Amino acid sequence: MAIGTLDTFPKLLMHHAQVRGGRPAIREKDLGIWQTWTWKRFADEVRALACGLHADGLRRGDHVALVSDNRPRLYAAMCAVQCLGGVPVPLYQDAVAEEMLFPIQNAEITLAFAEDQEQVDKLLEILPRCPTLARIYYDEPRGLRHYKQPQLRSYDELLDAGRKMDQSVVDREIDKGSGNDVAGMFFTSGTTAAPKGVVHTHASLLGPARTAAEMERLGEKDVILAYLPPAWIGQNIFSCAQAFVTGYCICCPEAPETVMNDMREIGPTYYFAPPRVLEALLTQVSIRIEDLWWGGRRAYEFFMAVARRVGGSILEGKPVSLGDRLLYWLGELFLYGPLRNVLGMSRVRVAYTAGEAIGPDLFKFYRSLGINLKQLYGSTETAVFVCIQPDGEVRSDTVGPAVRGVELRFSPERELLIRSDGLFREYYKNPEATRQAKDAEGWFHTGDAGFFDAGGHVKIIDRVKDVGKLADGTLFAPKYLENKLKFFPYIKEAVCFGDLREKVCAFINIDPEAIGNWAEKRNMPYSGYTDLASRDEVYDLVRECVERVNADLAAEPEIANSQIHRFLILHKELEADDGELTRTRKVRRGFIGEKYEPLLKALYSSDSMVHVNAQVRYEDGRTGTFSADLKIRDASTFAPAAAKQAA
Amino acid sequence: MILSVENVSLAFGGVKALSDVSFDVKEHEVRAIIGPNGAGKSSMLNVLNGVYHPQKGTIRFKDKVFADMDSHEAAALGIARTFQNIALFKGMSVLDNIMTGRNLKMRCNFVQQALWLGPAKREEIEHRRAVEEIIDFLEIQHIRRTPVGRLPYGLQKRVELGRALAAEPKLLLLDEPMAGMNLEEKQDMCRFVLEVNDQFGTTIVLIEHDMGVVMDISDRVVVLDYGRKIADGTPEEVRNDQKVIDAYLGVAH
């Protein structure tokens, strides 16, 4: 069969089946053994499925929901739908039934694929309210034997039916497809408003995927572990679009709990992890190192110090003294290599992190081990790749320059605007929101504020709506400051104030575990958080952190005026239950400012003490009052010029 | 009827653990044995798989009549069990523990296994597959290689169920499978017990203290008190039986 231009997912699949039919396309661990689907097997399965779906009435433009963890069959179903010009709509597999209702109604889903009984139950629960949903295909039959609903049909049945049919109809449908057809729809999380269905075409998914793959020289020999939710566009790009572009192999873990182990067995060469995953991995390593005998711990500390000093430079091929090279080589032999192996990162060539700010120490830890961890910037609407740090230009506080083919500029309000071939077509059935996000000239308004640094890298500082101005008119980005503070292990939360004020002041929440440990090592007895938070020693410790942040800020002319002049340590931890944090643990600055108004006033006076009289709510729901004097401390600030001379 | 117990009495010296107990278990049902502490529930289970030998009475299992059972005989006939106080090999991995459940199904002799000859290898692969299916069924893939001693209690219970299932039993005896578990673990365990019953058609006899669990998952319930059977019937019938209420709540004498 001649395939023509490779502008859609199905055409790419058929192409791979022809040119590299025998190479692995997807692997899955089943009954303890990694099972491989070759590209040919993958394509055969997709064609048979598409045939079955066609017979079941799937037509161009129909929407099909997929609720499943990462499984070969999920990807096969997704592509089978695309073969017929249908639109796959992956949904979050851990969402509750009610959360699935909106997407299914909004997208007028006609068919759905469900992984197992759990997902089938959810779909059946909302079925009465989803009149368009005609069929539910399930993969894992376990527990479903007694289900008699006429809508249910097993994946195996669909596949068998498809295998027996004449498959020429699928070829014709694949031929009809073009790059401008809709290839998928991804629902935004909708924590603040109703979710929106982000519509992407084959071209808008495959274009950026191809550009990034070329930039990183990804090829058919690469391997990736698909462990993030398939409903998230990143997962689709990394485990579908880029695999389809390059022909690399996607590996599906056995179960969500086995990811660490599966990663070690597979040894991916290409890897993505949000900062919280990297943090969790590092914590695991640290805990195990703590359990070592003292000699082992010393050796670890010594070699990690070597790695921190020269590891990054060696990774980037910069000149390093012979002695350091030798030490690093020894460390590689005894520590870095084995540690990478334990993390499952021995073969990682390219690793990305994104989604939130990453702490410089955390970032450096991975790079110093010789893992090429880089940052990127993107969103659902832009098909992920907007900025990527090229090799040799990797920093912890930027997200890199624009990827080839992406135009960037900042609005006067410092909002990042994007124009690229990866932009979404629209929000489904929501022209109002589409118009707001994408202006007449095709610029997408990200809602993120930032600027270009001296090297042309984009620096994201905050959401536009949170960015303010100091009284003197200079930029004030509270989250940027708070993140910098939170990168210190001793500081758990920080709330910075400064909008329309002459200077920046901060509330600090210490990390009771880290500070508790620190206190224990100094034989400092304490009774709890509130006690620790009032100690002069702790105040000194926090002041050092604040001053280091100030020194950092002084080096960045755009925000040098945002240095933190005064701070206090709050008497209680900020809690979502008290409305001070959102459920996703973001600080609600406005609410906190109102709730602790007397404290805020005192910060902006010259007092060194403030009396607090607060209502506290205990875990069992009772309330009590708390009263104490909180100390306020000044932190030294640096003149921008002076900092430059020092640096 | 897969199993019937007729007029069984068991005494340890002067202590009468069971006196004249009779009941039956139908094929493919979930049968619960309940009763206050010391009622003789575990003794009954121990009689069924041959740990204790009753002085009087008979046990009929699949049309064969026994005066008493032998443990290995019971196992060979297809009776498997779990224990109240978990009896796993703590130092061995989950996989190996479950593999021990396949013991009676292994046919190769010592020499073949020691030399890893063809038949031994084939057999091992076959058994490993069966064990992997159980691991998949019980959703314990992530602890496959973990020594059992390092697992939390709820998971150990699950592994023990896995070992019992590895013998592909006709009759499964569960001694307090949900004891000491939190609500979520209990729900999981209930789900597994019901699925075993449904998917493999295994008949299940279980002892349980949690009345909610018993009422939810069992088809019929036997109630023992001081070694005697005081009630027998569906959960609904048993719940409303005055003698049962008295046994549990006590009566004014």
Features of the shown structure:
heterodimer, A: 647 residues, alpha/beta, Rossmann fold, GMP Synthetase, Chain A, domain 3, 3 domains, five-stranded parallel β-sheet, five-stranded mixed β-sheet, 22 helices, 27 strands, 39% helix, 22% strand, globular, disordered C terminus, B: 253 residues, 2 domains, six-stranded mixed β-sheet, four-stranded antiparallel β-sheet
Strand content of chain B: 15-25%
Which range best describes the helical content of chain B: under 10%, 10-25%, 25-40%, 40-55%, 55-70% or over 70%? 25-40%
Biggest β-sheet strands, sense, barrel of chain A: 5 strands, parallel
Topology pattern of chain B, helix = H, strand = E? EEEHEEHEHHHHEHEHEEHH
* Total count of domains of chain B: 2
How many separate helices of chain B?
Answer: 10
The CATH architecture of the largest domain in chain B comes to: 3-Layer(aba) Sandwich
Q: How many separate domains of chain A?
A: 3
Report, as a whole number of angstroms, the end-to-end distance of chain A: 64 Å
Tell me which oligomeric state these chains represent. Answer: heterodimer
- Cross-sheet strand order for the largest sheet of chain A: 4-3-5-6-7
User: CATH H level of the largest domain in chain A: which superfamily?
Assistant: ANL, N-terminal domain
**Main structural class of chain A:** alpha/beta
Look at the structure and give the mean pLDDT of chain B.
Answer: 90
What secondary-structure arrangement, pairings included, does this model have?
The complex is a heterodimer of chains A (647) and B (253).
Chain A: H1 9-19, E1 24-30, E2 33-38, H2 39-55, E3 63-67, H3 72-83, E4 87-90, H4 97-106, E5 109-114, H5 117-126, E6 135-138, E7 152-154, H6 155-163, H7 168-176, E8 182-187, E9 197-201, H8 202-215, E10 223-225, H9 233-246, E11 249-252, H10 259-266, E12 270-272, H11 275-290, H12 294-315, H13 322-343, E13 350-353, H14 360-368, E14 373-377, E15 387-388, E16 406-410, E17 415-420, E18 426-427, H15 431-437, E19 444-452, E20 458-463, E21 468-469, E22 475-476, H16 478-486, E23 491-497, E24 504-510, H17 512-521, H18 529-533, H19 536-554, E25 564-569, H20 589-595, H21 597-603, E26 609-617, E27 623-634, H22 640-646
Parallel strand pairs in A: 1-11, 3-4, 3-5, 5-6, 6-7, 10-11, 12-13, 13-14, 24-25
Antiparallel strand pairs in A: 1-2, 8-9, 9-18, 14-15, 16-17, 17-19, 19-20, 21-22, 23-24, 25-27, 26-27
Helix pairs in contact in A: 1-2, 1-3, 2-3, 2-6, 4-5, 8-9, 12-13, 12-14, 19-22
Chain B: E1 3-12, E2 15-25, E3 30-34, H1 41-48, E4 56-61, E5 64-66, H2 71-77, E6 79-82, H3 94-100, H4 110-115, H5 118-137, H6 153-166, E7 171-175, H7 183-199, E8 203-207, H8 211-217, E9 220-225, E10 228-233, H9 235-239, H10 242-249
Parallel strand pairs in B: 3-8, 3-9, 6-7, 7-8
Antiparallel strand pairs in B: 1-2, 1-4, 4-5, 9-10
